[in-house]
Amino acid sequence: MHHILQTGRFLLRSTDQTTWHKSCSSFAKMMRAVCVDVPGGPENLLLRTVPRPQPKDGEVLIKVHATALNRADLLQRRGLYPAPPGESDIIGLEVAGTVDTLGAEVKRGWKPDDRVMALLCGGGYAEYVAVPEELLMPVPSNLTLCQAAAIPEAWLTAFQLLVLIAQVKEGEVVLAHAGASGVGTAAVQLVRLFGAVPVVTAGSPEKLRMAKELGAAAGFDYKTESFAQGVHDFTGGKGADVILDCIGGKNWEQNVSCLATDGRWVLYGTMGGRTIEGDLLGKLLSKRGHLLASLLRSRSLQYKAELVEAFSRRVLPHFSDAAASLRPVIDSTFSLVDIAEAHRHMEANKNMGKIIINVIPQNQDTQ
Question: C-alpha angle with apex 209: 328 to 229, nearest 5 degrees?
Answer without folding.
Answer: 115
